[in-house]
Structure formats: structure tokens, C-alpha cells
Amino acid sequence: xxxxxxxxxxxxxxxxxxxxxxxxxxxxxxxxxxxxxxxxxxxxxxxxxxxxxxxxxxxxxxxxxxxxxxxxxxxx
Length: 76
Known about the structure:
By secondary structure, the chain is mainly beta. Helices cover 9% and strands 37% of the residues.
């Protein structure tokens, strides 16, 4: 199991997930709207094809990781 800190820049929670859980599943399980956000796993930006990969397939080998969705800001 991996302790995932999941959320947005303003709200985060710690949850336990197996390494075989996909990024999309984790975000949806926590009601994180990733359609208007840039998703980062341990500080690295995820690409569209990586959303349906598991934690393990995305290179998570530690017992902890951080999955954060940062809302995209439009330039004024």
C-alpha cells in the first residue's frame, strides 16, 4: 500500500491505495476535478496517457507519494 497525499493546492487528504490503482481512479475517488487542472505526481507533471496508468507504472516505488491537481490560471 502507498500513502497518497491527494488533492488540490488548497485542499489535501492522506489516503491508502494499492500500487495497482490508476491515477484517474484516485482523483475521481477524491472528487478532484482534473479536467481544468495540471496533475502532478511528486512534482512531475503527468501527461494525458499517464492518467490511466497505475501508481507502479508511473514509477511510484516509495511508501508515500503526492498527487496534486493545480488549477490552470488564465493570463489577464
